[in-house]
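Hi Y.,

Following your request, here is the sequence exactly as I used it, all 82 residues.
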Amino acid sequence: MQLTDQRIGNALMLKVSGRIDSESADDFKQALDPYLAQCKLGGDVSIFEIANFSKMIRYHESVRDALADLSPSALASYTREA
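Below is the corresponding structure, written out as tokens. Let me know if you'd prefer a different format.
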């Protein structure tokens, strides 16, 4: 499991590659902790949804769909970069 981040305009995209299962769940939690700490401090707002694990995590079919939902200005930046 690997977590990478990319800033797009005023949005922060977190991308998970690999499998999240009982063996990698702790690593996933540790990788997310710094981002969640920023949210608690009023920094980036990261909202994700994975099955029934957490209501903090929202899933989108594509980066474009996520940005359209979360930050139209970031979508404009993403469209210019693409």
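The chain has one domain: 2-81.

Thanks again,
Q.
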